[in-house]
Design brief:
The protein is mostly helical. Helices cover about 70% and strands about 5% of the residues. The protein has a two-stranded antiparallel ribbon with strand order 1-2. β1 and β2 form a beta hairpin. It is elongated.
């Protein structure tokens, strides 16, 4: 079984961890489902984490389009094509979420006290519109992530151990 290179695996799991945290905590915040101390901390933590993710995300996209992994053995051409479209959707919605998240900021952002970023745009209709784009892209990203996880689980049940290629499970 051919495995993804270590850099691809590291970028995948780093992106997955930050995106899953930001989506889950962000939707919980929007639903007012967090206790007040956590609700107060989540916005700044999410902005800081996703800001730090940006260079890794760009590297991940660049690397992904430079490196072409062959399909797993026993995967149909149709399934492989669907997987490629699904990954493109993940990259597109993830990129839109990150970009709109940066552009919608109306105040300076402290990244864990290490550095501060000024808002790129003046507050107003544009930043409010970008906040709506950000929410919509996060909904689409969450749906795409759920589809991705479901597809991996279904492939696993069919004997296509996709996670092994991503550095999890037995090798070989």
């Amino acid at each position: 079984m051919k495995h993804y290179p270590s850099l691809a695996v590291a970028l995948h799991w780093l992106s997955a961890a930050v995106i899953l945290w930001a989506l889950c905590s962000g939707f919980a915040l929007a639903a007012h489902a967090l206790p007040p101390p956590l609700a107060k901390a989540v916005p700044s933590v999410n902005v800081a984490l996703t800001t730090l993710l940006l260079p890794f995300w760009l590297l991940r996209i660049f690397y992904r389009f430079r490196f072409h992994m062959p399909p797993p053995e026993n995967m149909s051409a149709r399934s492989w094509k669907m997987a490629r479209y699904g990954h493109l959707a993940l990259y597109a919605f993830g990129s839109l979420s990150l970009l709109s998240g940066v552009l919608m900021m109306e105040r300076a952002v402290s990244v864990f006290g290490w550095f501060t970023l000024a808002p790129p745009l003046s507050p107003g209709l544009l930043t409010h519109g970008l906040a709506r784009v950000h929410f919509a892209s996060n909904v689409l990203l969450a749906l795409t992530v759920m589809s991705h996880v479901t597809a991996v689980a279904l492939h696993h049940r069919q004997g296509l151990f996709i996670l092994r290629r991503m550095g999890l499970g037995q090798t070989g």
